[in-house]
Amino acid sequence: MTNRIFLLGDDIDTDQLAPGHAMAGGLAALAGHCLGAVRPDFAASVKPGDVLVAGRNFGMGSSREQAAEVLKHLGVAGVVARTFAGIFYRNAINLGLPVMIAKNLDDVSDGDLAELDVVCSELHLTEKKLVVQLEPLPEYLKRLLADGGLVPQLKKRFAAERARLED
Amino acid sequence: MVTQSFRKLIADDEATGAAPLLSAVGVMAQTLAQKIIARAAGRDVVRPGDVVTATVDLAMIHDSGGPRRVEPILKELGAGLFDASRVVLISDHFVPGDTDEGARILEFTRTWARQRDVTFHDGEGICHVVLPERGHLRPGMFVVGGDSHSPTGGAFGAYMFGVGATEMAGVLATGEIWLKVPGTILIEWRNRLCDGVMAKDIMLALCARLGMDGGCYQAIEYCGSAVAVLAMQERMTLTNMAAELGAQAGLIAPDEVTVAYLKKAGVEVGDWQHFSSDPGAKLLAHHVFDAATLEPQVAAPHSPANAEPVSQAPATAIDIAYIGACTGAKYQDLKYAATILRGRKPAPCVELIVAPASRHDQDRAAAEGIMQVFEDAGARILANACGICAGYGNDRLGEDVTCISSTARNFKGRMGAASSKVWLGSPLTVAASAVAGHIADPREFLAESGRAP
Ligand code: SF4
Predict the structure, then answer these.
(1) Is B46 part of a structural domain of the chain?
(2) Model confidence over A17-70: pLDDT tens digits?
(3) Same domain, B411 and B435
(4) Is residue A90 part of a domain?
(5) Cβ contact A20–B413 (<8 Å)
(6) How many domains does one find in chain A?
(7) Same domain as B269, residue B395
């Protein structure tokens, strides 16, 4: 496992995640600008499975969904933070991006090798051989994430309903 | 670091909620938020932290986040609307459609409204103001809105919150939404606001005091004698800016003032007394402030949390005074601003712009001579819509312009050029600043003319 942690500070806002000026070009173009203002190396070096760890109020600002969508597009395994802005939190879960709350992040450093375990609510710092405890997600939200988000879940539900009707 | 001088009456730790008690009927004491969510979730009781699926009584969408964003998702799902009679569409962000893109979006919105057969208020005003004005809200309702200022509806004792487009599409398809039951932060304002001080000043002061994440995505409930004497549209300013505190919802328990407003709007109010927080319901926090010590506030660029008493703010010269938005251009807001502008003119270097929040409010203001006051003051009157607040049309702030605005947000570049600077204030403070040519304390003007609004 070579997944890494990107450690960020407090108040990472939706403009830093999905800058307004880069919104017109679609998700792929937007991805190149994600977090550019605070971590210029991020977009180029992030790899699928990497984890973002941040402080308070991650995702504050507008209700634009692209802020969560762009992280998913880049393959980020999830975001661990002390607190999340509410609308971002909802958008992330509904788009299938795990967002986990942690009270204590003292053990985490930038660049740590890590693996996020959403089901067991743990962030494994594989090289340091430490485990950071995360607040467990309610079962309902775990299922939503396992289904890949709201739209895939609804597709499944509607398909099941249609199948029942045809029986 | 700004200083805030208004008085806190009770220390936080003394006032935080008591342990849950049993009410007289043996059910756990619940907050207003819990009661509404419990009903919508088909349960007797819900606890903060529970994740529930709730049935929505109403979904509100607008031209920006609505049809053009939800229709592709509905198509992908192969779904229709859960109940067209429970969907209200309002055009406001791109009205009057003075750009090619805006005109196209409005056209799409209008076509969608016909095809999907939903209630549509087209060009009649800003969604958060039109929704209650047209009788769509009632105490106890559970409502989802496709806009971040959706907590405004909480002034009527409805639990209303904003969601993104994907989630709204899910609501439109199913009539349901998941929700983590919030705790309640009770914010009590005792005594009375002084002349020259408005609901907007309460909210700016709270943004500075509690911060933009002070609401922790929980429910904020406002109460106290200073809130009880406020007119409905002033109360709407409190719940509207719960969004700036980072709360999911802002609530005010219904009372006679609420019922009188709703009856006028043609609503059959039904059982409203039940919708209040039970004594002893567990709270996350209970803040008690003295309204009589609150001064008019202004928030410096680029955050509502930069608020400070206007008496301490630098007398910054302004180019534009903007009275607009769901936050600051309702009938009540226009009426207050006119008390200062009557018989006065803006300073020569200042452009005064007024965008009444709804046609209904504008008509009422016109009938009472209030619109004439703005016209006599040489104001430019914009359409009943989001106007410069959303920054989506041709009316935007230019490079390096300094504006004082009655809107809710002064984030960098929101109302136009990134180099523009927006100060936030109440409609009274905006009017006073227009006349003075710089940021000014409205109380000086009220004292001068001997008028108290
Ligand atoms: S007036 Fe401003 S704050 Fe209100 S709904 Fe329109 S854009 Fe949003």
Answers:
(1) yes
(2) 988 777 777 899 999 999 988 899 999 999 999 999 999 999 987 778 899 999
(3) yes
(4) yes
(5) yes
(6) 1
(7) no
B186 shares a domain with B173: no
Cβ B248–A86 below 8 Å, yes or no? yes
Q: Is residue A24 part of a domain?
A: yes
B304 and B442 part of one domain: yes
Domain count, chain B: 3
Atom of ligand 1 nearest to the CA of B408: 3
B300-338 pLDDT, tens digit each: 999 999 999 999 999 999 999 999 999 999 999 999 999
Whether residue B337 contacts residue B323, with contact meaning beta carbons closer than 8 Å, is answered with yes
The model's pLDDT over B151-175, given as tens digits with 9 standing for 90+, comes to: 999 999 999 999 999 999 999 999 9
Residue numbers in A near B391 (CB within 8 A): none
Residue B2 maps to a domain: no
* pLDDT of res. B12: 53
pLDDT tens digits, residue range B58-71? Answer: 999 999 999 999 99
* B440-448 LR contacts (CB < 8 Å, sep 24+): B440/B310, B440/B315, B441/B196, B441/B296, B441/B310, B441/B311, B442/B196, B442/B296, B442/B310, B442/B340, B443/B194, B443/B195, B443/B196, B443/B296, B445/B340, B445/B344, B446/B195, B446/B196, B446/B339, B446/B340
Please give the span between the terminal C-alpha atoms of chain A, in angstroms, as a whole number: 46
Report the nearest atom of ligand 1 relative to the CA of B127. 5
Q: Which domain holds residue B32?
A: 7-18+28-51+182-293
Distance, CA of B6 to CA of A153 (rounded, Å): 49
Contact check, Cβ <8 Å, A91/B164: yes
Question: Of B293, B323, B338, which one is at a domain's C-terminal end?
Answer: B293
Chain B residues touching residue A86 (CB < 8 angstroms): 217, 246-248
Domain of A24 in residue numbering reads as: 3-137
Nearest to B173 among A90, A140, A154 (CB): A154
For residue B392, name the pLDDT band (cuts at 50, 70, 90): confident
Share of chain B above pLDDT 90, in %: 89
Chain A residues within 8 A of B79 when measuring between CB atoms: 154, 158
Which of B147, B174, B212 is nearest residue A60 as measured by Cβ atoms? B212
Q: Do residues B400 and B305 share a domain?
A: yes
Q: Give the separation between CA B322 and CA B304, rounded to whole angstroms.
A: 16
Under the phi-then-psi rule, with left for phi > 0, alpha for psi from -120 to 50, and beta for the rest, what region is B325? left
Q: How far apart are CA B355 and CA B395, in angstroms?
A: 11
Q: Is residue A125 part of a domain?
A: yes
- C-alpha B301 to ligand 1 mean position (Å): 18
User: What pTM was estimated for this model as a whole?
Assistant: 0.93
Which atom of ligand 1 is closest in space to residue B387's alpha carbon? 1
ipTM (interface predicted TM): 0.89
Residues of A with a Cβ under 8 Å from any B Cβ are 20, 56-57, 60-65, 83-87, 89-91, 94-95, 138-141, 144, 149-151, 154-155, 158
